[in-house]
Amino acid sequence: MTEAVAIEPDSLAAAGSQAFNLLIDGELVDAASTFPVINPATAEPFALCPKADESMLDRAVLAARRAFASWSARPVEERAALLLRLADAMESRLEDFAALLTREQGKPLAQARMELLGSIGTLRAFSAMRIETRLLREREGSHVVEHRRPLGVVAAITHGISRSSCS
User: Fold this and answer.
1) DSSP states of 149-166 as a string?
2) Neighbours of 8 (CB within 10 A)
3) φ, ψ dihedrals at 102, nearest 5°
4) Which DSSP category does 11 fall into?
5) pLDDT digits (tens, 9 = 90+) for 111-139
6) What's the pLDDT tens digit per position in 35-90?
7) Domain boundaries, the chain
8) How far is it, in rounded angstroms, from Cα 42 to Cα 58?
């Protein structure tokens, strides 16, 4: 059972702790509230994690829905190039992100690096994918063709976030 920790955000800011923003509709915005991120090795807070409220979630979903049409209309090569840019940007800050993961989760630095390299590799693999139209069945007078296309916005919460931390 996790013990609740009451920490004043001002005390974290005064201690030089990191604070993060939310990215909504292409802009970094302050969160409705924050909660401390505890380093499991020291049991001390080291950052403030942004926490969106329902209206911020609604704005983010609306922005994603608006962006969907232009994103899905982009040529696949352009989308792939953007995924590669993200992979390159993550790789250029690999050590920063690995240190952050280690502080946040208490995992060894080498494991944090491997987790990030897995994410970077996944982005690169997705950038290389090409889903072509394919003929599934052809019979006299008829044929079945599979066409794959983007369907819409997807939201996901990673497995590492407990329900209690989302409320």
Assistant:
1) ----------TTS-HHHH
2) 9
3) -65, -45
4) H
5) 999 999 999 999 999 999 998 899 999 99
6) 899 999 999 998 899 999 999 999 999 999 999 999 989 999 999 999 999 999 99
7) 75-130
8) 36
